[in-house]
Every structure is written in structure tokens, then in C-alpha cells.
Amino acid sequence: MPSKTELEKRYTDYSNEQLLDLLNDRESYTELAVNVATCEVKRRHLSEQDIKDYVATKYRKAELYIEKNIHEELSLFLKSLFYFCWVPILTFPFKLNFQEDGAILKLKQSNFYSFAGFIFCAMGALCIWAFKFQLLSAIAVWIVGMLIALLVDTRFNRDRIVRRFEKIIKSHNAIIKQRSIDQDSSQLP
User: Fold this and answer.
1) Alpha-carbon span 65 to 104, nearest angstrom
2) Does the pLDDT at position 149 exceed 50?
3) Rounded to whole angstroms, how far apart are CA atoms 54 and 18?
4) For position 176, what pLDDT does the model report?
């Protein structure tokens, strides 16, 4: 565990945003680290406008993150591409791009459609092999599988992510409420 002087030296190199991030996530740090960061913020004489700008930036980043992960889903063309071209070597560049962009919903949807495409393709092949279906019947099974995947997608991917965000927001609001109660009680005589 670093000493107070080591933390002071480290925190002098931190940007204002890094220090405010640390203070915003104080539950993840030791009491000593939080106290040293608080002293460093006071030493820098951050204005109220600096803190408002920091909060506005954080809200904007959160809005962009939510936009990217709830509102921006795969287009029908890409859903079809991942479903019918489920071979990983063909879809890997797309998935890597989604991962680098932090597009969690698109990445989950691409994995979901690739998996569903593989399963229903295998079911079609099994119908040909075991039940002596015609090729067109097996293709019909595969296409019907795409329709099933489209229906299941909303519940399986988007709704789960929305519930997770709601849970995070509720816990974050509870922490903020507790902090304001703690501050109000500490100001009482």
C-alpha cells in the first residue's frame, strides 16, 4: 500500500479530471487515497465552474454510452449477415470493430445472430440427414430460424442491457442521495 507522500507525488501528476474521477468513485479507494486526493483538489483551487464542466462532461459521456448501447442496434442487413454468414473468420472484423468502439449491444447481437445462424443451419442439416428432408425444406428451417431469432433478440439482448443500466443508475442515485444526506448531517451544529 502506498504511503501518503507517494500518493501526494502521484496525485500531483493527475489531471483535474482524474482527481475528480477518483473522488467520484471513492468507494474503490482507501480513506488515505481519498483524503490525499481531496487535499490536492483543494490545493488546485478548482472553481465551481470547473466542477460543473466535469459533471457535464461525465453526463455527456454517459449519454453517448447509453446511445451507443441501447439505441444503436444492428441493422437488419447486418443481422442477416451475421445469421447467414456465421463462420467466425467472415464476421471477426465486424465484431472486432464493435469491440473497439465499445458498442456492447452490437457485439452481443452479432454473437447472438452468429450462434443462432449456426444452430438453425445445423438443425437444417440434421433434418436432411436424419429425416431425409429436401434441401428446400432445410433452407426453410434456416430462414424460419432467422425470424425466431429476430423475435427473441429484443428480449435476449436489448432488454437485458436496459435492465442492467437501470440497476446501475438506481445504485448510483442511491449513493448520491446517501452522500447528500451525509453532507447535510455533517453541516448540522
Assistant:
1) 9
2) yes
3) 10
4) 66
Amino acid at 11: Y
Which grid cell is 156? Answer: 435476449
DSSP notation for 131-168 = H---HHHHHHHHHHHHHHHHHHHIIIIIHHHHHHHHHH
The C-alpha cell at 1 is 500500500
Cα–Cα distance for residue pair 22/40, rounded to 1 Å = 12
- DSSP assigned state of 29: S
Q: What predicted TM-score, i.e. pTM, was given to this entire model?
A: 0.66
User: Longest Cα pair distance anywhere in the chain, in angstroms?
Assistant: 85
Q: For the chain, which residues make up each domain, given as ranges?
A: 74-187
Please give the grid coordinates belonging to residue 111: 454473437
Q: Measured at the alpha carbon of residue 173, what is the angle toward residues 170 and 175, in degrees to the nearest 5?
A: 110
Tally DSSP H helices, then E strands, for the chain.
Answer: 9, 0
| Amino acid in position 107 | L
**Residues 6 or more apart whose Cβ sits within 8 Å of residue 38:** 23
